[in-house]
Design a protein that fits this description.
The chain has one domain: Cyclic phosphodiesterase (Cyclic Phosphodiesterase, Chain: A), CATH 3.90.1140. The chain is an alpha+beta fold. The strands form 2 sheets. The protein has a 5-stranded antiparallel sheet with strand order 2-6-5-4-7, with helices on both faces. It starts with a strand and ends in an 8-residue tail after the last strand. It contains 4 helices and 9 strands. The longest helix is centred in the first third of the chain and has 17 residues, at about 10-25. A hairpin with a 5-residue loop joins strand 8 (about 165-170) and strand 9 (about 180-185).
């Protein structure tokens, strides 16, 4: 399984972001070097685990449940835009975050520690945690100049929402990755449906 742990914004926030992004994507049809993601793909990655063997994957659920229970819900909102590594030669166009960054970073750190203790390879080893939501990726090895898109989306701000759960997601590779949720666990031990 190719796994990652994420926070997924609620449907109303995804709808709001989609309304802001769709016209930009259509206006900037010249960006044929970009592959746009959509609401079904949108998430904020806390830890990318990569390929995880079945026995290790089975041990992740209790570790993530304990980790989630140790954190309280906190507010986040989507805000602005940027690019990795930089807008003139981007591989990723992203939407940024506003809200309780300290709580988000603490949650990501706890998740990384928990999955490592459960036997998964250390997630994102040596990388700084840079939370974002990916809007588009460059095709193949190409880089795209997305300065116009970053400028167009710079003033975007979604409604705020309380982060109440984390999700373990399986990424099915292919032409366009498909995601399926393997498990979800509430923050602060509250019971959440679905």
């Amino acid at each position: 399984m190719r796994l990652f742990v994420a926070v997924v914004p609620p449907p109303e926030v995804l709808t709001d972001l989609s309304a802001a992004v769709a016209p930009r994507a259509a206006e900037h049809a010249a960006h044929r070097d970009l592959r746009w993601t959509g609401p079904e793909d949108w998430h904020v990655t806390l830890a990318f685990l990569g390929d995880v063997p079945g026995p290790v994957a089975a041990g992740l659920a209790p570790a993530l449940e304990r980790t989630a229970a140790g954190h309280r819900p906190f507010p986040l909102a989507l805000a602005g835009a940027g690019a990795f590594p930089a807008a003139p030669h981007a591989r990723v166009l992203w939407c940024g975050l506003d809200g309780d960054h300290a709580a988000l970073t603490a949650l990501a750190t706890s998740v990384a520690d928990a999955v490592t203790r459960a036997g998964a390879a250390p997630p994102d080893a040596g990388r700084l945690f840079r939370p974002h939501l990916t809007l588009a990726r460059s095709r193949g090895r190409a880089q795209a100049d997305v300065r116009d898109l970053v400028t167009a989306l710079s003033g975007y701000a979604s409604p705020s929402w309380p982060v109440e759960r984390i999700q373990l997601i399986d990424s099915h590779p292919g032409g366009r990755p498909r995601y399926s949720t393997v498990g979800r666990w509430p923050l602060n031990g509250d019971t959440l449906g679905g």
